[in-house]
Amino acid sequence: MDIFEILKFINNLLGFVFGEIGNFVTGLLGKGAGTELVLMILAALGIITYGAVTMMALTWFERKLVARIQDRIGPNMAGPFGLMLPLADGVKMLTKEDTTPANADRWVYLIAPLMISAFAMTSMAVVPFAPNVVGTNLDIGAFFYIAIGSGSTIAILMAGWGSNNKYSLLGAFRTVAQLVGYEVPMLLNVLPVVMLTGSMSLVDIINKQTNVGDGYGFPFILFLPLSALVFIISGIAETGRSPFDLMEAESEIVAGFHVEYSGMKFALFMMGEYVNAAVVAFMFSTFFLGGYAGPIFVPSYVWFLLKSAAVFSIFMWLRGTLPRVRVDQLVNLNWKFFVPLSIINIIMVMIVTKVFVTSPIQAAANGGILVPPVLLMAILFAFGGGLMLAALSLAARSMREKREAEARVIAERRAVNRAFATAPAGK
Amino acid sequence: MNGINGIPLWAFLIIAAALFCIGLYGALARKNAVAVLMGVELMLNGVNLNLIAFWRFIAPDSSAGLVFAAFVFIVAAAEAAVGLALIISVYRNMNSVDPEKLDQMKL
Amino acid sequence: MTYSIAIFVALAIITIGAAIAVVTLRNVFHAALMLVVAFFGVAGFYVLLEAGFFAAAQVLVYIGAISVLLIFSVMLTRGVFMAQARNQQSGYAAVAAGVMFVLIAALVGPIAINWPGLRIGNFVLPPRVLGNPIEFAVPSPKAVQPDYLTRFGSNLIETYGVGFLLAGVLLLLAMVGAIWVARERKLMEIVLERREMAAEAKVESDADTAAGAEPATPPEPAAGAAH
Asked: What is the largest CA-CA distance in chain A?
């Protein structure tokens, strides 16, 4: 066989395998409505299993990577290179005592971790892993992801309230303030991607970044660097990872809203958090890095995993390096910096894409300067980069002024104290 | 009569009517102001369901029904925010959220 | 088609059950959670009606934002454990709701049975509007066009642009108003507010006494206001 045939076969391996499974089940049960239902349930189970396995692999990878950043080895006792660590974690979680606090609202307490994991798994249903391998190619895929991401705030309030613990409740309030706040820049920065694509479907977004049809041929991170940056920061804040991990500040507020959870319920919270972070990485690589698209010598699903793993490594790198952000700094950063920046970014992208268009049909219909995609990319990159530099320098200048003002006030007070301390006794 | 996948129009309308009337009962018969607002939200959901059902069956080509439903979403969100702010403010002054205690024009 | 009807029936039971639970539960927090279930049910109905965008918008707006607001105010107003769920006019309210449902069902009935109308001699029901009869018969629904979202977006901004901008202004005013009304007041501000209210009450009670009415009792001060 030709080398290209082999490559094409490997590329379509996933689709081929799933097609064969579908044919097998149809052969077993015959064509009909029941078969479709069974196939859909099998697909959902496959996605959920993939989510759980991803979480297991990510826990191992994270602990090894963060350990190396902190100049230590990390887990290496549970199997070769610590590869049995997720299994050891699972066994530990299963064998811990399953407590329920006294006077806790039993059903609310029990359902909260289930809800968080369920929402996290639901958002995996639209992730495109390979050209025809996607749970469901919704025509509102990006919007679906944002909506499901916002639905999990209720589960956190349930966890905080159901624990019957004041600190838990306060932690839940702060967590919800953080989550609800950071949804806004995330949504506002998915909007330019949707504007450039003309469709909310995730497969369409990936196709627009390739040379298929009237695609641009470049990943959107080159078009919209500022949107990518704000999206990834908001994504990190949405899932509660460092440096925005106020929710589970392990050394400060006694683990926030999941302080009363132990054993398998805590494992479900962890699964929700890791799967959420994994889906943020998947979405970033879909929106801004081109998803499963890439040169043919590596299969598309491997490209997708490589890109998402690279993004997730950046998450872990930030976790191992940066200190925690205080809650008022977090909220200020969101509402006073990210949201105005995102709005200005949207206006800028709107104007540029109306003035410089890439398709002749649109130029004829609405009027505009016809440019090849490369030029549009250069213009948007210039504007986006300029906006980013301007915003960062303004922010840096205002922070420096605030810091210097604070230092001045502290020096003043110190001088006053010193003068008071060395003054002669008696008034 | 045919409908969407076998579901006729009147089924959706009855559900919307039921939601509206249950919300109406909740808005009139509850002792907690926040629960009254929950009834109002149920009513707005019933109205929205009605609008989308009629859009789908009568005029799926035009967007007027969808735009109307979108405006109902927006107004419901705005009204929930202001209503809850008022309830919290009243609670701070009177330490009670019973709407029956608010029977005068001053606190 | 077979499981569309099954899904519809299941969603109907869940939604109506959750709605009834919202208005009858004594524990207001549980009622708020049942409201979330009802919102999910309505989102499912939107999916059945092939308006997927509105299902996602329902989850994002109602469950992601309004329910969070409701639960926050339930927690902040500490009225969770009420003695009773219903007030004195719950009987009348139930009657009102029932009558309302019957009236709406009376309007929906002719749609269900494809009523052609009533003619007795010159009397025609339903009456004619501008010469055209009001049709109760519902035609078979056309298919939704695949680009309904694009046209919805362009219509929203082109045809209904004024309403869209007004909606934005409404949201801005609602945000500013809600933040201002529920803002945290410093202690001095609360003391001055109280003094003003007491002065107003005294002026009014003086006027009432002068007119011969009995003085009104001052409102009880709130214990948890100073935070």
From this structure: 102
Instruction: List, in order, residues 6 or more apart from A192 with CB less than 8 Å away.
Output: A224, A227, A345, A346, A349
DSSP C85: S
Nearest-Cα distance to chain C for B51, in Å, is 11
Q: Would residue B65 count as lying in a domain?
A: yes
Subunits touching C (CB < 8 Å, at least 3 pairs)? A, B
Domains of chain C: 1-85 (1.20.120.1200)
Strands A133-134 and A128-130: antiparallel
Q: What is the 3-state secondary structure (H, E, C) of A109-168?
A: HHHHHHHHHHHHHHHHHHCEEECCEECCCCCCHHHHHHHHHHHCHHHHHHHHHHCCCHHH
Q: What is the rounded CA–CA span in Å between residue A313 and residue A307?
A: 10
Residue B64's closest CA among B46, B74, B51?
B51
Domain containing B87 equals: 9-100
Q: Per residue in A342-367, pLDDT tens?
A: 999 999 999 998 888 887 777 777 77
CB-based contact B95 C224, cutoff 8 Å = yes
- Judged by CB atoms closer than 8 Å, whether chains meet at C56 and A139 is answered as no
Q: What's the ipTM?
A: 0.93
Reading the block at residue A251, the tokens are 């050394």
Sort out which chain C residues have CB atoms less than 8 A from A153's CB and list them. 64, 68
Kindly list the domain boundaries of chain A, sorted by start residue. Answer: 96-344
Find the CATH number of the domain harbouring B13.
1.10.287.3510
- Which of B38, B48, B79 is nearest residue C70 as measured by Cβ atoms? B38
pLDDT digits (tens, 9 = 90+) for A130-187: 887 888 888 899 999 999 999 888 999 998 888 888 888 888 888 898 999 999 999 9
Angstrom distance (rounded) from CA A208 to CA A215: 4
Contacts of A among chains (3+ CB pairs under 8 A): C
- Residue A262: burial class (beta carbons within 10 Å; 0-12, 13-18, 19+): middle
Instruction: Give the number of domains in chain B.
Output: 1
pTM, to two decimals: 0.89
- B1 lies in some domain: no
Window 29-48 of C: residues touching A by CB (8 A cutoff) are 29-30, 33, 36
